[in-house]
Amino acid sequence: MNQDRIEHFKKKYGEAIIANGLRLRPDDFMEEVEWRDAVDQHYTKIWLEFTYGGLYARRVLDERTRVLVAIAQFLTLNEMEEFEQLLPCALNAGATPREVLEVILQSTVYVGYVKAGRGAKICIRVMKELGRLHEITDSQLPMDGANGGRSLAAERPKWPKAESEEVAALREKFVEKYGWGSMSTRLRLQAHQGYETLKSFDRIDPHYLQLWLDFIYGNMYTRGILDDRTRLLMMVGICLAANEPVQLENHLRGSLMQGATPREVLEVILNSTAIVGMPTTIMTRRMLEKVLEEDGRGGELDLVK
Q: Domain coordinates of the chain in residue numbers?
């Protein structure tokens, strides 16, 4: 698009809005504006004001985190065109090619390996086209992932205190039976979840439980390519997009435990309005306030007392 057309849209829809869109999505933003403008200028105006003039100008979340969460959500929704368009945007926002791929690989836990594989192949193609694929191939983890330097002696003191002697005994049972590596990660990140799922699978299918613990907690969640705060905010976005309320509440708590502020978690929820619509966003906002209230942090989101 030539500069005259860009200036035309700046005058029509606002210079700051168009400039922000060009900053965030230099490759395709004007195409998105132009086709909307051709058929419905009123809708284009309010869409721009809500997104690039509103939500995407707030900067409550750093741009890198916001875009990585959105990539995971578009993958979850199988919106592959928008997913692909955001990959270069994540690089522009400061993410590395390896971090972008890691968002996709971590999504395996909630969307399965087929959909994650489809996203990974698109990511590989895009990075190759950008001349940055070597940044992925040259930064592979060793065969044992990031587990080589771990030890039970170093990690056990970091576990939260067991709520009772019964829970302490249950912990030791699972550590002995399924290995400390996965259980240590689960205790560090998700001790708030309780043990019902573990007890159930231990009773009905311990072989599956071993596979599940090893894959997710023993390996996926220990890779360390994304910090836990970013990874858990991404999981909040995925569960919101998938409309999965049980794990959504779990990851709201987990992201707060790993350093995300209530306002940052809320911002993931509010930004999701543009991607998944209003109803799920409203439900999740209520859930966040409930979690904060239960954790003794009620009122932390209030701007007006």
A: 3-57, 63-139+224-294, 152-221
Residue 290 is predicted with a pLDDT of 95
Q: Which of 56, 58, 65 is nearest to 32 (CA)?
A: 56
Please give the Cα distance from 185 to 174 (Å, whole number). 13
**What does the pLDDT read at residue 246?**
86
Answer whether 217's CB lies under 8 Å from 182's CB. Answer: yes
Q: What is the phi-psi region of residue 231: left when phi exceeds 0, alpha when psi lies from -120 to 50, beta otherwise? A: alpha
Q: What is the DSSP string of 110-166?
A: HH-HHHHHHHHHHHHHHHHHTT-THHHHTTPPPTTTT-TT--HHHHGGGSPPPSSHH
Structure tokens at 82: 């928008």
CA 238, chain centre distance (Å): 6
The whole-angstrom separation of Cα 137 and Cα 15 is 41
pLDDT confidence of residue 304: 63
Does the pTM surpass 0.85? The reply is yes
Inter-residue contact 239 to 251 (CB < 8 Å): yes
What's the half-sphere exposure (Cβ side, CA atoms, 13 Å) at 184? 17
* Residues 73-107: tens digit of each pLDDT: 999 999 999 999 999 999 999 999 999 999 999 99
In eight-state DSSP terms, residue 220 is G
- Domain 63-139+224-294 sits in CATH at 1.20.1290.10
Tens digit of each residue's pLDDT (9 = 90 or more) over 18-33: 999 999 999 999 999 9
